[in-house]
Design goal:
The protein is mainly α. It has one domain. The protein contains 13 helices and no strands. The longest helix is centred in the first third of the chain and has 29 residues. The N and C termini lie far apart (about 45 Å).
Length: about 300
């Protein structure tokens, strides 16, 4: 069940990479089906807000279910944490830390892409939707589907490699999944936070709830803030507080010390890194998604 040699270990990392490539191929294939009304001349249906959002959900979930649920099905069953449910103070602290790292990643993205034409197409699309549609699809359905795919199906299946490997790979795949250079960095960062919450609690409801809050506040409600200087001054101070708190929390708590190294104690952390970085499908996966990101920018 568990790999016994370095070659077998590298093969497991390769299978994980192939699963994401399969996910990408299925997404593109299903997208052609979703665009059928456009090619058949039913433009009113194709550009309808309900159709656009519902079709996206019906594309993403089946593709992930096939790619992760089928390709990774032979991976060993996950080791789930059995920790007490977080209290109110823990939940508030988690929200502050998540928001802090989200804005660090967002600001860094703005800095790195300042001289390019790259924009945050996802948030622009959400801002143009009616509020009830944005809440239903962006705040409720998208976090639920994405957590089921990237945390329950993907991260859980990788936990036998160790918490750190499972967390980093699932977060990286979550960032690549967005196929947008603007979203890649902060989506990966959010994936790290959500994955950590899932590993530490072993319960989907906490990372789903946190994901919903992030999408609600950063993707929907922020567009409804009054255009007043004092409002945005308070918002800026809140962001600065979250960033300082998040950085201080990580330095002080060093949360990675609680990670479980995995059942395969015959492999060192360095051997796992080498096995991952010498996996050709792993780099092919990254190259394909970066290529798609550039393609969508050109388009």
């Amino acid at each position: 069940m568990y790999p016994l040699s370095r070659q077998e270990l590298r093969h497991r990392y390769s299978v994980a990479a192939w699963s994401l490539l399969a996910f990408t191929v299925l997404l593109e294939a299903f997208s052609f089906l979703y665009a059928a009304p456009y090619y058949l001349g039913y433009y009113d249906l194709y550009y309808n807000d309900w159709y656009q959002n519902l079709a996206n959900c019906l594309i993403i979930y089946p593709a992930g279910l096939i790619a992760f649920g089928v390709i990774l099905r032979k991976f060993p069953k996950p080791r789930l944490a059995q920790l007490p449910s977080p209290g109110v103070a823990d939940i508030i602290q988690g929200i502050i830390v998540a928001m802090g790292f989200l804005y660090i990643a967002s600001d860094l993205t703005d800095f790195l892409l300042a001289d390019t034409n790259t924009v945050d197409y996802a948030n622009e699309a959400v801002a143009q939707e009616p509020l009830h549609i944005a809440i239903l699809f962006t705040v409720i359905l998208a976090p639920l589907f994405e957590e089921l795919l990237f945390r329950k199906l993907l991260l859980d299946r990788l936990l036998f490699l160790g918490d750190w490997s499972a967390l980093v790979i699932s977060a990286l795949f979550f960032g690549l999944f967005h196929t947008n250079l603007y979203q890649f960095l902060y989506a990966t960062t959010v994936g790290l936070v959500l994955g950590y919450v899932h590993i530490m609690t072993g319960k989907m409801r906490w990372n789903v709830g946190l994901h919903m809050f992030i999408n609600l506040f950063c993707g929907v409600l922020i567009g409804y803030l009054p255009d007043e200087d004092w409002v945005w001054d308070i918002f800026s101070l809140a962001v600065i507080f979250c960033i300082i708190y998040a950085v201080t929390y990580v330095i002080r708590k060093k949360p990675w010390r609680e990670f479980y190294p995995g059942p395969m104690n015959w492999f060192t952390a360095e051997e796992k890194r080498i096995a991952c970085l010498t996996s050709a499908p792993f780099w092919l996966c990254i190259a394909v998604h970066l290529g798609l990101s550039v393609y969508y920018i050109i388009q």
